[in-house]
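Hi R.,

As promised on Friday, here is the backbone we talked about, encoded as structure tokens. Could you run it through your design pipeline when you get a chance and send me back a sequence?
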């Protein structure tokens, strides 16, 4: 019995000793060390676009590089919505299909967002009525040599993974068709909301291929393995109510006459997130994401290490002071 206790104690000690090594890479992803958050010392990349006032027409980005500069519209909301960023897909003529240019623009936008400490929540939406994203641009794909397809799909997968790994909450607003890569893009977001009239599914087997941007991995983690297999094997398309019933989306709304019911719900959710402590939001996402991929004991170690990141922050002290003074906290992400 003593030997067993010693073995258990040794294993626990080894687990404790490895916690810093386990969590360090993920803290680095957030720009955090194992001590104080580095928001005060880390350089912040300048956004590749200009902020847009709430309700104003956004300025066009990337105009010097491509003619299709409007295919992705990036807006920093202002005033009481400051901290919310909206990525709006705008390829109406191609049903928002995923092209080389769109992936290039998404990659640039995500690269800027992940290093911007002012960003608090990101909404991915469509600016084309009735469409979220119809999947791969098959007209472009059919012109590719077979040797080009693999590398391009790898690039799409990498960009979708970057979206999944953004350190702040992400919300997909599905106000229309989301098929194949379009649904994979939505699956990479933390939260999905959809209009009841929206249609969504991983339909790649109809083209004798499989989901290649994370669908075979994220769909089972969202709705369960058996149901995910059924949906992928059948290439079935679900409406908003069906998607809500199986847990594919968190909220379903009746579509409004403007065609943006899901976006408005996503904006409401983002506004709920804004008052919370920025460092806490980032490490909470980290703890959840990484903890779900490991066993419970390791997951609890990740949670403990992530919690430790919040203890020395100015925001934590501000939260306590605000509670004492019975006023809203004024968090700064420090």
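Update: got your reply. Pasting your designed sequence below so it's all in one thread:
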């Amino acid at each position: 019995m003593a030997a067993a206790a010693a073995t258990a104690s040794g294993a626990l000690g080894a687990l404790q000793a490895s916690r810093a090594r386990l969590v360090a890479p993920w803290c680095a992803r957030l720009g955090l060390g194992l001590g104080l958050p580095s928001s005060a010392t880390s350089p912040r990349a300048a956004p590749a676009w200009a902020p847009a006032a709430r309700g104003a027409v956004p300025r066009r980005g990337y105009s010097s590089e491509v003619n299709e500069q409007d295919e992705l519209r990036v807006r920093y909301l202002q005033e009481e919505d400051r901290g919310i960023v909206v990525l709006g897909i705008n390829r109406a003529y191609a049903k928002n299909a995923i092209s080389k240019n769109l992936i290039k623009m998404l990659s640039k936008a995500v690269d800027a967002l992940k290093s911007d400490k002012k960003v608090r929540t990101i909404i991915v939406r469509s600016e084309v009525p009735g469409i979220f994203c119809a999947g791969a641009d098959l007209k472009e794909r059919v012109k590719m040599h077979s040797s080009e397809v693999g590398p391009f799909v790898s690039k799409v997968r990498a960009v979708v993974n970057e979206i999944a790994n953004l350190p702040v909450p992400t919300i997909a607003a599905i106000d229309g068709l989301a098929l194949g890569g379009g649904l994979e893009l939505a699956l990479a977001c933390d939260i999905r909301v959809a209009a009841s009239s929206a249609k969504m599914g991983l339909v790649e087997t109809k083209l004798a291929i499989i989901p290649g941007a994370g669908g075979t991995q994220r769909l089972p983690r969202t709705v369960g393995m058996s149901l995910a297999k059924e949906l992928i094997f059948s290439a079935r398309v679900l409406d908003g109510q069906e998607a809500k019933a199986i847990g594919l989306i968190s909220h379903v709304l009746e579509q409004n006459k403007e065609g943006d019911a899901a976006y408005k719900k996503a904006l409401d959710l983002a506004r709920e997130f804004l008052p919370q402590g920025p460092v806490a939001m980032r490490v909470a996402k980290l703890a959840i994401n990484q903890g779900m991929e490991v066993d419970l004991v390791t997951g609890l170690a990740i949670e403990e290490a992530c919690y430790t990141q919040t203890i020395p922050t100015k925001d934590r002290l501000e939260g306590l002071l605000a509670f004492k003074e019975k006023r809203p906290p004024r968090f700064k992400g420090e």
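One thing I noticed while checking it: The CA atoms of residues 128 and 254 lie 18 Å apart.

Thanks again,
M.
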